[in-house]
TrEMBL record:
Its EC number is 1.1.1.194. Transmembrane segments: none annotated. Belongs to the short-chain dehydrogenases/reductases (SDR) family. This is Coniferyl-alcohol dehydrogenase. Signal peptide: none annotated. It comes from Streptomyces cellulosae. GO terms for molecular function: coniferyl-alcohol dehydrogenase activity. The keyword Oxidoreductase applies. Pfam families: adh_short, adh_short_C2.
């Protein structure tokens, strides 16, 4: 009989995080939610602010068992203040992962939710590398806030930094746990209106059209998260899996053809 795993999920109170919690709970896993809000589902909950390293440290120290899976799902949109975007979407996530991974069981997995907004990380690699090279949360947020005054750009860089950092960290932690990212397109969650507010319909609507005329559903992204955390994905490491019905690739090819 396969033993149940201990799965830590950030942002598990709503949206994609809530769907991830349901997915692992249905498998019989023990789920621990780190969030500012208590989830509606009956799982273990540790109140955590991912924009506060002391809160993250307290949450990690409160865990009474090694984790098998960490799902970094919590995030904020580009409509939020730039320091908050950088703190929650990347530097807080990085701090939590680096604190928790050494305590995880060997053979475990970390799956972080990035975004197709991070698609063009290669075009911004110098800026992204500068963020990644910041040694701690405070210096990272301060440096990023000085570089990025616009919330939309800060959101994109935070997701680009997450994708690139995950690939690097996958090599550092290789042999202990695997690390991958999932990059969804637009998904029907309570956060979606704020994405339209920060990015605009002119940018998002063509991608929705290329995705078949609809946005993604949280459970569709949760299914990819579950796969990457499973024993069926043991040869997948340091990779970003795009889950957007092919829209971003189709858009990029269309732009290239027009040029």
């Amino acid at each position: 009989m396969t033993r149940s795993r201990t799965v830590v999920v950030t942002g598990g109170a709503s949206g994609i995080g809530e769907a991830v919690v349901r997915r692992f709970t249905a498998l019989g896993d023990e789920v621990i939610v780190l969030d500012r809000r208590k989830p509606g589902s009956p799982v273990h909950f540790v109140e955590t602010d991912l924009n506060d390293c002391s809160s993250i440290d307290t949450a990690v120290d409160a865990l009474d068992r090694p984790a098998d899976v960490l799902c970094n799902v919590a995030g904020v949109s580009g409509a939020s203040p730039v320091p908050l975007i950088l703190g929650v979407n990347f530097f807080g996530l990085r701090h939590l992962t680096d604190r928790l991974v050494p305590r995880m069981n060997e053979g475990g997995a970390v799956v972080s939710v990035a975004s197709t907004a991070g698609w063009y990380w290669r075009d911004h690699l110098a800026e992204v590398t500068r963020l990644i090279e910041m040694p701690d949360f405070r210096s990272g947020v301060d440096t990023g806030a000085a570089l990025l005054r616009d919330g939309k750009d800060a959101y994109a860089r935070s997701k680009e930094a997450l994708i690139v950092w995950t690939s690097l960290a996958a090599q550092r932690y290789r042999g202990h746990v695997r690390l991958n990212t999932v990059s969804p397109g637009a998904v029907e969650t309570p956060l979606l209106p704020s994405f339209y507010a920060s990015m605009g319909h002119a940018e998002l609507d063509p991608l929705t059209e290329l995705a078949g005329g609809r946005n993604g559903r949280p459970e569709e992204i949760a299914a990819v998260v579950e796969f990457l955390a499973s024993a069926q994905a043991t040869w997948v490491n340091g990779t970003d899996v795009v889950a957007d019905a092919g829209a971003e690739m189709a858009f990029a090819l269309r732009q290239n053809s027009a040029a």
